[in-house]
Amino acid sequence: MKWIVPAMLVLVALIHLLPLAGVLGVAKLEGAYGVRIEGPDLAVLMRHRALMFGLLGGFMLTAVFVPSLQPWALGLALLSAGGFVLLAWATPGHNANLARVAWVDVAAVLFALAGLAAWWLQRGTSAPP
Description:
Layout: H1 4-17, H2 26-33, H3 40-65, H4 70-90, H5 96-123
Helix pairs in contact: 1-3, 1-4, 1-5, 3-4, 4-5
């Protein structure tokens, strides 16, 4: 059962790495989110958002190989994805692309919760050093 935590980390990392393509330009962001990004200010903010998701996904992948980081990475995944789901749910009238992103984030929340539960259960079954 020790494979569950790393597997959940890989899944949430892949979900968080998807927006990284937005760093390449506005067209990628507009296609992903179904919004018009007008002006350089909003373009910089959205591309930076994509970069931050890439860093978060990279941290999650690192945690696969560094067990002490695993609960932190899963917690951040839960907060990140869960926060977006809550914001989308609390904001009526968003487009279909954002609804799709929210559903993907629901999956990320479930993966993170499964990973945290597995990590918690493994804590008590670890062999002494």
